[in-house]
Each structure stands twice: as structure tokens, then as C-alpha cells.
Amino acid sequence: MAPYFRFALIFFTLFVIIKMVLFNLRKNDDWYLAAIFCNILFLLLAIFFTVRSTYKSTNPGSISYLDVVKTALKPAMLYAVLLSGFVYLYYSKIDSGFTRVRVVETTKKAAQFYDIEKQKNTDIELLKIPREEYIKKAAQSAEFIYSPFVACTLSMIGLVLMSLLYSIIISWAWKAYLYKV
After folding, report:
1. Element holding 76 (H helix, E strand)
2. Contact 100, 33 (CB under 8 A)
3. Higher-scoring residue by pLDDT: 180, 44
């Protein structure tokens, strides 16, 4: 098995295990940001260990910076695709109440915002519509933003961009400093 495939699968599996443990402990809402940061860390580790295992015993003069970047992008893209599929499955089948909870939170915040701004007599264009319509529009926006498809798409875009950035940084650090490992 190629190192990029192995490390992408290992860290993807670890993330799925952590996410499912949090879901079963009913801590998925409390630890939402921690899970996201764990995801980013696993992406970074998959890239690093792939580069390390691929170029550990290679002569530094025989590899180019672009070769290291391409090697670093392989596990990152595989991880991004696998994780995006899991995100869609998770929010559509496993934690299907996530969208509903976020919509309720958003409508509460929208109602509070509307009331506060009305008391201040601010001239915001949105406040010229009735309160119920404003809250309804906020709920519709929240339903779209927190839908499984949008979560999947945004996680894919974010992971691809982070993968590119991390691959460039790790490749630079590998060629410049860490090659002596």
C-alpha cells in the first residue's frame, strides 16, 4: 500500500472514530470546534508522515521542491475526498438533527438582533420588514447553510485549500530544515 494512501486512511479513520465517540457520548455539539481542529491536525499529520516516509532515505539533491509538493498533495486530496463524503453521510444520516438545532439557534439570535436594533431605531434595510418575516428569512438561510450538502461542499473546499497551503509549507520546511530527520 502506498504511503499516501495508508496515512490518509489512518488519519481519516481516527477522525471518524473520534467523531462517532463524541456523537455517542452526546458531546458532538459541545466539542464541535475541537473536532474541526482535530480534523485539521489529522490533515497536517497525514501530509507530514507521507512526505517523511517517502523521502526519508532519499538524497536531497535528487528531489525537487515540486516533487515534494506533489507527494504532499496526494494524501491531502484523498483525505479531503474521504472526509467530505463522511461529512455528508454524518449530517444527513447519523446526526440529522444538527440542522434543526442550528436553525433554532439562528432564529433565536435573529429575533434578539431584530428586537435590539428596533429599540436602537437604526435604519437597517432588513428591519423595514415585519419581525416574523425577518425571522422566517433567517431560518431559511440557516436551513440552507447548515444543510448536509453545503457542509460537505464547504468542507471539501476548505480542505483542498488547506491541503495546498500545508503541502507548500511542509514541502518548504522539509527541503530547507527537516530533511536531516
Report:
1. helix 65-89
2. no
3. 44
Cell of 64: 525537487
What gap in Å lies between CA 172 and CA 167, rounded to an integer? 8
Long-range contacts of 169-172 (CB under 8 A, 24+ apart): 170/44, 170/47, 170/48, 170/51, 170/72, 171/51, 171/65, 171/68, 171/69, 171/71, 171/72, 172/65
pLDDT, residue 179, reads 59
Give the number of C-alpha atoms closer than 13 A to the C-alpha of residue 79, restricted to the C-beta side: 36
Question: What's the pTM value of the predicted model, to 2 decimals?
Answer: 0.84
pLDDT classification of 87: cutoffs 50, 70, 90: very high
Residue 178 CA: distances (Å) to CA of 51, 95, 131: 11, 41, 59
